[in-house]
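Continuing from yesterday's entry. The apo prediction looked reasonable, so today I'm repeating it with coenzyme A included to see how the binding region is handled. Same sequence as before; SMILES copied from the compound registry.
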Amino acid sequence: MMDAPVSYVTDPFPPVSILEALWRASWGKDPEADLQIVLAHSLGHVGAHVGERLVGFVNLAGDGGVHAFLLDTMVHPDFQRRGIGTHLVREAIALARRRGARWLHVDCEPHLEPFYRRCGFGPTAAGLIRLDA
Ligand SMILES: CC(C)(COP(=O)(O)OP(=O)(O)OC[C@H]1O[C@@H](n2cnc3c(N)ncnc32)[C@H](O)[C@@H]1OP(=O)(O)O)[C@@H](O)C(=O)NCCC(=O)NCCS
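Holo prediction written out below.
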């Protein structure tokens, strides 16, 4: 199963219960948002599948213009460290380009900076504020 081929699907619109389960497994906590609404606002998303099973996911949010933001990169722990996350992000970069974005943003925790560098992201100064604290 772990060595089974992985297929990458654009806009699979997974059932929310499936996506929530993948979220919990990947992040170890419940999603903060209603994922049905997140999917409805998506510029595009990519799912990684092993057979029928969703094992990875990444989402793109857009501003309707030239900017897009990469969000919610996740791979089920049973399938991590075999290149699926990198492949998902590269598919999402290509998808953002096809959907008309010219700039793709991402932010992450420091330990994942090398992961995103290897996916093609350059460094930038950015800011982040928690609004509900
Ligand atoms: C981050 C995540 C998506 C990576 O998925 P993945 O399929 O394991 O990634 P890859 O196999 O493509 O990793 C490629 C390289 O990135 C780096 N990398 C991947 N995960 C890493 C981690 N958790 N910590 C540090 N470096 C990591 C490694 O250099 C890795 O190469 P290696 O396996 O040869 O050492 C996955 O760990 C995950 O779902 N984490 C929980 C959710 C999360 O934090 N998402 C990030 C949101 S910004």
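Comparison notes:
- Residues 110 and 116 are 10 Å apart (CA to CA).
- The radius of gyration is 14 Å.
Will overlay with the apo model tomorrow.
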